[in-house]
Write a structure and sequence with these properties.
Elements (H helix, E strand, L loop, with lengths): L5 E2 L11 H28 L5 E3 L5 E6 L3 E8 L12 E7 L4 E2 L1 E3 L10 E3 L4 E10 L3 E9 L1 H6 L1 E4 L7 E3 L6 E6 L9 H25 L11 H13 L26 E2 L7
Antiparallel strand pairs: 1-14, 2-13, 3-10, 4-9, 4-13, 5-6, 5-10, 7-9, 8-9, 11-12
Length: about 270
């Protein structure tokens, strides 16, 4: 009769169920969720993507206000953030009852704007700000300034009329947003810090956890179900074979990494 003790090979690597592995994976998921939240906040609240825009030939915009708010009107187009010139857009604001709303000029006498922004998708400079103190509907009126007539003229009007035709395709767009939007986090570096860096950190943490604590399905050797059954037998001290040859005993020196889950390593001499 052949007798032998069934042994369990020692895994060459740490098991994925180790508490540290779970902790690292949880931290990675939380960081990735933070990156997703940062992307949503950047696109909808912080960046120029959240601004309301229209073409200059669409001269009247209706603004509905629910609570007292300060708004900023921007001149938007290629190179607008570095433009040093008088505004190309005049802005006026009136209530639905035709009450004039005061505006504050944000471009100084030298043509420098107090607020600018620049991303790969949008670029602009602030022209005026105004404060709405009562809820209601207001009209925002925008039209080309004298500077626009001098620099973007497409030709003269009918002979003797003295009118100047403007090429609206060359004029900047108009953008409107509450004061503070876009803010300091709304530029490209804000996107990097809020979205790119957390995304890379979460991915690297997941990759690190996968290499240091691989899941049981990736462990070398036999399947995880066989190893789990063997551990249960070891803990309970039950017999490992039908012949009653005694409990399983681990052999930490006999099985090289990657060996089978259960193996017979000793035989009794024949009588």
């Amino acid at each position: 009769m052949i007798a032998g003790a069934l042994v369990l090979p020692v895994p060459a690597r740490r098991l994925g169920t180790e508490p540290r592995a779970t902790l690292v994976r949880v931290v990675a998921v939380v960081v990735l969720m933070g990156a997703i939240a940062g992307a949503l906040a950047w696109f909808t609240l912080l960046s120029p993507f959240s601004l309301r825009r229209w073409e200059l030939d669409d001269s009247t915009q209706i603004l509905t206000v629910d609570q007292p708010t300060t708004y900023v009107v921007y001149e938007e187009g290629p190179g607008a953030s570095t433009t040093v010139s008088p505004p190309l857009i005049n802005v006026g604001v009136r209530s639905i009852s035709n009450r004039r709303i005061a505006t504050t000029n944000l471009v100084d006498d030298q043509g420098h704007s107090a607020v600018t922004y620049k991303t790969p998708w949008h670029e602009g400079r602030a022209l005026v700000s105004f404060t709405i103190d009562k809820p209601g509907k207001y009209s925002v009126l925008t039209f080309p300034s004298a500077a626009a007539a001098n620099t973007n003229a497409a030709g003269g009007g009918p002979s003797g009329s003295g009118a100047v035709l403007l090429d609206f395709a060359k004029l900047p767009k108009v953008a409107l947003a509450p004061a503070g939007t876009p803010n300091v986090w709304g530029g490209i570096w804000g996107f990097v810090l809020l979205v790119v860096v957390p995304s890379l950190a979460g991915i690297l943490l997941l990759a690190y956890a996968g290499q240091r604590w691989p899941s049981p399905a990736r462990q070398p050797g036999a399947g995880w179900r066989e190893r789990r059954r063997a551990r249960r037998r070891l803990r309970s001290g039950s017999a490992g074979d039908p012949g009653g040859r005694g409990p399983l005993t681990p052999n930490r020196a006999g099985s090289p990494p990657g060996a089978g889950a259960l193996a017979s390593v000793a035989t009794a001499p024949r009588p």
